[in-house]
Amino acid sequence: MALRSLPTQLPTRGNLHQPHPHHHMKGSLSWCHTLTPLPLLSPSANSLGKVCTQQMVVKCSAGGGTSGTVQAVNMSPGTPVRPTSILVVGATGTLGRQIVRRALDEGYDVRCLVRPRPAPADFLRDWGATVVNADLSKPETIPATLVGVHTVIDCATGRPEEPIKKVDWEGKVALIQCAKAMGIQKYVFYSIHNCDKHPEVPLMEIKYCTEQFLQDSGLPHVIIRLCGFMQGLIGQYAVPILEEKSVWGTDALTRIAYMDTQDIARLTFVALRNEKINGRTLTFSGPRAWTTQEVKMQMLPWSLCLS
Hints:
Layout: E1 30-34, E2 57-61, E3 68-71, E4 85-89, H1 96-105, E5 109-114, H2 122-127, E6 130-133, H3 143-146, E7 151-154, H4 164-181, E8 186-192, H5 202-217, E9 221-226, H6 232-242, H7 261-272, E10 281-284, H8 292-306
Parallel strand pairs: 4-5, 4-7, 5-6, 7-8, 8-9, 9-10
Antiparallel strand pairs: 1-2, 2-3
Organism: Citrus sinensis
GO cellular component, one term: photosystem II
Protein name: NmrA-like domain-containing protein
C-alpha cells in the first residue's frame, strides 16, 4: 500500500512543527505535537498520589486535512503502585500471550488489556492473569486499566480489517498520553527493525513516528525493535505447503532473522530488570537471517515426510 493512500491524519517523521533533532528529514505528510513544558507528575512520585494539572495535545495533519486531537486525562489521587504490577496490551496476540506467560512465571502481577469480544480470553485467566476490557480506539476506556500499574508492555497492533492508523497511531498516542498522565514508571514498546529506513512502508513509518512520540513524551521507556516471529512461518509457509497450496513470497535476497516469541518474552524481562538501558532502543533478532527461498527449502522436506 502506498503511503499516499493512507488517511490524511497519518503522521510521518517529515516536517515537524516544532524544533526536533529529526527536523531535516522530509516526508510527504507531517505531524506536530505539543508536549507540556512541565512534568505531569513529580519525577520522584512512586504512586498515583499526584494530581495532573498539565496536559499533552497531539495533532496530526497532512495537506489541509482535519486534525485529530487526543487530550490526556486528569487523574485524581490513587493507590500506591507495586513494582511487580504490569499491564500487557495486546495480550491475546502471538507475542502478547508469551509476554503474559513469562511474566506470570517470573512472579509478576499481570493485568491484560483486551478488547471486548464474543469469545472471552479465558486462557489468560486460567493462567492467573487479570483481564480488563478496553479499546485503544476509544481513549476514554484506557485510564481505568492503568490504575495501580507500574509497567506497561505494549504488544498491540491493529486488526487487518481496520484502518492502519486507528490502533497503531491514534490508539498508541492515547495510551502513551494516559500512561504519562498516570505516572507509569516504565513503558515497553515493540517496533520493527529498520523502521526508520523505510518510510514508504506505512506500518514501519507509523512505528518510527510512535518511537519518536514516546521518546518526546518523557516517559521512562524501552523500545524493542523486532525482525520477525518464528511462529509466523507456520501459517505463512508450513500450512500452505502441507495443504499443497500456493506459497506467496519474493525472490528478493532480503533476509529476516526470525525469532521465537518465547525468546523475545524472556529477553524483554531481562531488559526490564536492567536500569542501564532505560530510554534505549534495542534490536532483538534470531541467530540467522533467512531469505524467502531459504525458508521454503527448509519447509519442503518436512512437508514431504508428513504428506
